[in-house]
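Incident review: delayed structure delivery

Summary: a single-chain prediction request sat in the queue longer than the usual turnaround. Root cause was a stuck worker, restarted by the on-call engineer. No data loss occurred. The affected request and its eventual output are reproduced below so the record is complete for anyone auditing the incident later.

Affected input:
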Amino acid sequence: MFKTIYMRFPAVAALPLAVAATGALANGAHDQGTNGDGHGAPHGAPGEPSQVSRSIEVVMDDTYFEPERLEVQAGETIRFEIRNKGTLVHEFNIGTPEMHADHADEMMAMMEEGVMTPQSLDEQAMEGMHDHANSVLLEPGESDEVVWTFPEETDVTLEFGCNVPGHYASGMVGEFELKH
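Output delivered after worker restart:
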């Protein structure tokens, strides 16, 4: 006997996990944007709106982000105003290339389970899923924002990407240049 349980993982959408009917659930759910000890993760941390130094509009179309490259200061808190002007569902997700690769599998599972189609999201089925401070998932015509504080370290490779199946691989990814 199995039941479906949703867990939150850093920088990735929650996935349904099959667990034995005994209710045993592996430890490991983490707060988004922290490394478990309250300090920022390598990709940064959720930002406080009162600390925002500037706002940047990011437009998602069906094959690209506009702009495709962003320059940010180490430790800076930015409000990203995200708009999906495409005809497909798109995601704005801040992370490292490895985080995006891990997240792609979970986005595929959302598609396979019918939580997401190329043009829509099942809001009821998504409740508790894909609820992360570093990411928004938007239907065509929708807008939202992400407030993010970048890490103090500048030796990390950070990107913003769309991990809807096939989008990142087709080039829907942009890069952050971290400056001191």
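Verification: The first strand starts at residue 2 and ends at 9.
Action items: add queue-age alerting; document worker restart procedure.
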